[in-house]
Amino acid sequence: MLIKRRSPLKSSEITPESVYVNRRRFMQGLAGTAALALTEGASAIPAYSLDKNQPQYPGPDWLQGALRASERNEAFSTDEKPAPYGNIITHNNFYEFGLGKQDPSRRAQEFKTDPWKVDIAGEVNKPGIYNLEDLLKPHALEERIYRLRCVEAWSMVIPWMGFPLADLLKRFEPTSKAKYVEFTTLQDPEQMPGQRSFFSTLDWPYVEGLRIDEAMHPLTLLAVGLYGNGLPPQNGAPFRLVVPWKYGFKSIKSIVKIRLVEEMPGTSWNRTAPGEYGFYANVNPAVDHPRWSQATERRLPSSLFSPNIIDTQLFNGYADEVADLYRGMDLRQWF
Amino acid sequence: MVLTGVRANTLKPYALWWLVFLLPLLPLAWLFDQAWNMNLGADPAQAIVKFTGLWTLRLLWITLAVTPLRRIFQWGWLQRYRRMLGLYTLFYAVVHALAFATFILGWRPDLLVRELSERPYIVVGSLALLLLIPLGVTSTRSMQRRLGARWVKLHRLVYVIAVLAMVHFIWQIRSSFEDQLLYGLILAWLLGYRLWIRRRSAKRKRG
């Protein structure tokens, strides 16, 4: 009889020290709001009154209960004003659906995102292909209002619905060899016109990656909703990554594969222009893109005659939470 | 018959003049309409700058197409509209630059300095605009007469400007080079045609 042997201690139970220390620092940093957090740490999401003229994205039936039950994680949310819903769902960089900011909202509406399968592969004890529904079922959703800083020097404040990536990864028991996480977007040229383009410098499918401690960081979110609703296809339905301290292109959309690996994975933009887009891609005002400055950003929406130009913050303002991950690293070299 | 013939000769250029005067204003009118009705999306600033930049390039290419088209199709009448097309190129370039400085940079002096010194494609674009200005200023008939042969030399700057504009465009490629390839091929033909003509006439002289 074959009995699967299990190691007495699963490697997923060992929290990397950096994550542990960092989590503690994160809480310390929030000492001022800790008392509040006890009572208000999670509060019911206000019913968003979305413009009825906007298209509605309730999300798949099996997700709607969880979306309704979700609460806002105040401790992890900025108090800056979110961009209007109509802006968030019509201003997207999702090159699978075209290069224009409004292309995805025009061309992704027929994109089939339910049912959806996700391949969990590589250095995990429980690899397999899972239905998204089964993948998400155990997780309570919460709302987090994050800043999103695009490498193109604009930014938006976005209320996401989701749960920490770490909670999902732990369920599949990463092995001790899991040093990085590689994410892959769907490749389906029939549905994604951008993947049919002859002139694209990006290779498909789109691939992104995180170091394991970045992936396990409590700020790293898997998003399945937006503004109390489901995730619109143009925003990366049915589920996407949100890493708020990195440039937006790291937050990969419409994920079909999560692979834990030992070596740093090759990522799409890095392969296309290694001198311009690094693996880390941490928001950093001191490290310019070779063709433009990253010192400031335009917070959208912005009025035409007084553009809302603000100084970009190190790690997009999440330095207290994530700076420890990069202690001792030269951020100019590892941009 | 004789009368209509006379009319065609006098009225046709007149109607054409209005057509060439009004047509290049259409893109700008469309842009105003879109901006006014909030149809430019979450980042209208970027949309306006991109749109006016693209039309500057298109008008420059159209201006450069006058000579080859005139020669190939024997369209002598085309020549008299070249000045207007060239001035519209300058006009769109100025709108493009003003839109960038106003809507994207908010005329913040530190940002203006930074963009003009650090962003190579902005430097190249600004240089192209700078060189375009003297061509616009000397475009009048009296300046043409006054400068004589030097006028022709001066206005050959337009080839340098076109190449700078193309570099400005290419330098912004992020993930698709479709448009840049198209505009590049057209420019290559526009300039290549002139080289070919020069060579041919030089050969004939020698022969």
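Chain B has a mean pLDDT of 92.
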